[in-house]
Amino acid sequence: MRRTLSILAVGGLLCAPAVLLTGCFGSDKGDTPAAGVSALLAGNTTEDKIDAISPYLDATNDYNRFIVTFDYAITPSLEEMRSGERMTNVTLPHFTDLKKNLEEARANPQTAGVYPDIDAEADAVLAILKDLAPLADKMESYYSSKGYMADNYAAAAQMTAQYLPLYDAFEPAYDKFDAAVTTHFKEVQLARLEDMRKEGRVNAAAFLELNMKVRELADMLDNENIDKAAAEAKITEINELTAKIPDVPALGSYKSSLNRFIGTFRGYVAGQEDGNEVVEDFNDFVRSSQNLDLAELDNKKK
Q1: SS3 at position 88
Q2: Domain ranges of the chain
Q3: DSSP readout, 195-236?
Q4: Measured between alpha carbons, how far is 114 from 43 in angstroms, rounded to an integer?
């Protein structure tokens, strides 16, 4: 379940005005998000930090979304390659798109040097993609054109022998990159929350904090055995924050999606819901959060 959520729970990135709402699940490595906030605010503005991390979030979200959506085909293809089966088709992750997105992120002057650890992990991933991406494209072309009918799978065996070690090197490298992006994404969220509070944007701050609490609840699905009492305590925090946010038209679907996610989460903890349903409802919640103009929340109060 942990691996599924770490790649599934990615959704919208920015909500006007430039507020990061969601990113990736998975465990954080290195400093805690709170420890990084002071350093984050000591340099450039939070908006600069958002601009710097957004290209990396775009890259991870696009890649993660594809491999989750087509996991039903990607995983069997990998298993068949490992077992040496003769395949008639193959589905592989979009390595070329990831390579392009990471190269653009590294070339973007807004990202340069802002997050050195993310830059380093991105470079490590790109070093593998240099060989993996064109090989994957070649394999997909080979199978779609039924090249195996012309050479009796000779090229298939050769390409598989090259693909598997590259893929096995890629997976941990990508996971480290994804974890670094997640850590700094959470730092940006905390920094933006602090900015909102200083600006007196009480309702917008409550909305952002609510989204952070909801993701903390979903993070509990990383654990094999979920602490039901801790989960219910988190749900209580979520409900208390929800009550503080004024009613605006765009919040109707948002609150409905939130309640569905909480209900499905409780059902999963009770053994009555499938994990994929929890993830689907969380992603619906994320999409609903993108419909809100945060400025409307505090304007409504006036």
Answers
A1: coil
A2: 47-189
A3: HHHHTT-HHHHHHHHHHHHHHHHHHGGGSSS--HHHHHHHHH
A4: 10
* Range in 34-38, 139-143, 219-223, 283-287 with the lowest mean pLDDT: 34-38
Residues 263, 276: contact at Cβ < 8 Å?
no
DSSP state of 247: P
User: Which one has a higher pLDDT value, 34 or 289?
Assistant: 289
- CB-based burial, 111-139: b 16+ in 10 Å, e otherwise: beebbebbbebbebbbebbeebbebbeeb
**Composition of the chain by helix, strand, coil, percent to 5:** 75, 0, 25
Element (H, E) at 14: strand 14-15
Q: How far apart are CA 194 and CA 198, in angstroms?
A: 6
Tell me the pLDDT tens digit for each residue of 214-240: 989 988 987 888 999 999 999 999 999
Alpha carbon distance 24, 7 (integer Å): 7
Closest CA to 126 of 96, 147, 86: 96
Q: For residue 173, is pLDDT > 70?
A: yes
For the chain, the straight-line distance linking the first and the last C-alpha, in angstroms and rounded, comes to 44
The answer to whether 268 and 277 are in contact (CB under 8 A) is yes
Q: Would you tell me the crossing angle of helices 202-219 and 251-269 to the nearest 10 degrees?
A: 20
Cis previous bond, 109, omega within 30: no
- Facing residues of 20 across strands? 14
Report how far residue 105's alpha carbon sits from residue 88's, in angstroms, rounded to the nearest whole number: 36
